[in-house]
Amino acid sequence: MRILNLYACLGGNRYKWTDCEVTAVELDTELARLYQERFPNDKVIIADAHQYLLDHYKEFDFIWSSPPCPTHSRARFWSSSNYDTTTQPVYPEMELYQEVIFLEHYFKGKYCVENVIPYYEPLIPAQKRGRHLYWCNFKLPNDVGERSIQIGAGADEVKRLCEFHDYDFYKYRGGQRIDKIARNLVDYEVGVIILKTVRNVLMDNDVNQIGLFA
Questions:
Q1: Which domains does the chain have, with CATH numbers?
Q2: CA separation for the pair 52, 33 (Å, rounded)
Q3: What is the rounded CA–CA span in Å between residue 199 and residue 201?
Q4: What's the confidence (pLDDT) of residue 205?
Q5: What parts of the chain have a pLDDT lower than 50?
Q6: pLDDT at position 149
Q7: Integer distance in angstroms from the first to the last C-alpha of the chain?
Q8: Whole-angstrom Cα distance, residue 165 to residue 142?
Q9: What is the predicted pLDDT for the residue at 139?
């Protein structure tokens, strides 16, 4: 299976994937370097994931996209909606919905766009599982295996996230905050369950297609 992993970061969703050919797209050069170190057999592209999707979507069987979530998050909204705070209000980044609309109408394979539950009513209906929303062209299981961890609590947060994701985030030497990267990483248990679901859907489709001509 040919998979496109957009906004790949450190490959949280990809960690337990097997028997697949993965192309990962990440703009942060240090994250891309660490991703390649973690998954040496993947093809890693340092580029704008949003544009790469538009240019290369036809080359893949399954596309996973995790666009940046801060401008949609409830936590940031609660902070910036207080006039006395130093956190400034911002426009929500609409690339999220652009990709959902594009994939739904142009892509012939299976896709999953993942993001946080926003502070507003989602503009396009999604499947809610745990603390996240998933826009997919297939039905997710009721439980996608999302594990629980307390975010933003205590000085040892990054250490606990290292254990949770089975990765040493202190390797990162780029310009982003380590705690932000660690918080945003997709739970690998979710990633493996969703890929398994995609494979089951594709297998069922193949069986049904064969049945039509048997």
A1: 2-213 (3.40.50)
A2: 18
A3: 5
A4: 79
A5: 213
A6: 82
A7: 25
A8: 22
A9: 97
